Amino acid sequence: MTISLHYANITVNDVDESLGFYRDGLGLDVQMDVANGGFRWVTLGSAEQPGLGIVLSVPHAGRSQASGDALQELLTKGELPMMVYGSTDVDAAFERLRDTGAEVLQEPIDQDWGPKDCAFRDPSGNVVRISQV
Amino acid sequence: MKPHELAELAHLRRARDLIDRDYAQPLDVPTMAARALMSPAHFSRRFRAAYGETPYGYLITRRIERAMALLREGSSVTDACMAVGATSLGSFSTSFTEIAGETPSAYRARDHSALEAMPPCMARFVSRPSVSRPSYEVPSRIREASRRIRS
Q1: How far is A2 from chain B (nearest CA, A)?
Q2: Are A56 and A7 in contact (CB under 8 A)?
Q3: Is a pLDDT exceeding 80 seen at residue B134?
């Protein structure tokens, strides 16, 4: 028996706006892009991890108005948990994302606890950290 | 949520990110408010409504949190004070004691082996002091006192 991470969900305010960040800036490939009942299902991935899909969905998808509002508020306030990506070249990954106009939280630095990393906000308010691997 | 409400929260978030980034610099409320495109008074009210503490309180908490990490690593109290942008050792020690529940030198001398066993990036979150999210390390009597002082 094996177990592995298959899908990871990210909540974003606007899928199109987020594609500029995750596809053009971070460099992920769009795997799927389907619309259903006013909501859109987009998954992204990386050739480095062929079995993993990163799902972009909006706060109100599949939720009540009240729950969607609560999630959207936390998202926009910047209170949702971060995602950490790995790159073999953090400096190059940083420059590509910054050139798309993404909000920089931290330039690449060597952390005293480990590898070099940098951090951004995605357009919705999620923290995206990129760590040297 | 309405678009203008979302836009306001995003502006407040950018001001909070500025504090997280530049906490060791001389940073005043008008500078933070300018980042949020608001007047200082309106900014302070809206920041508190969103995050449960004033912008200045958030800055001081952020500085003390960083100072706690430096003291755990063995920094002297004076070095930790200077490194986080506090200009007076006296007011630094007072703020530290209000927030952490003990003096900087007592905190420095104490055993922190439980936090040292965690990855440092995780220990920062777990040990993050906050009046609204009290640390398990802080006795409740001290929480009550700091609540009175900072409210």
Answers
A1: 27
A2: no
A3: no
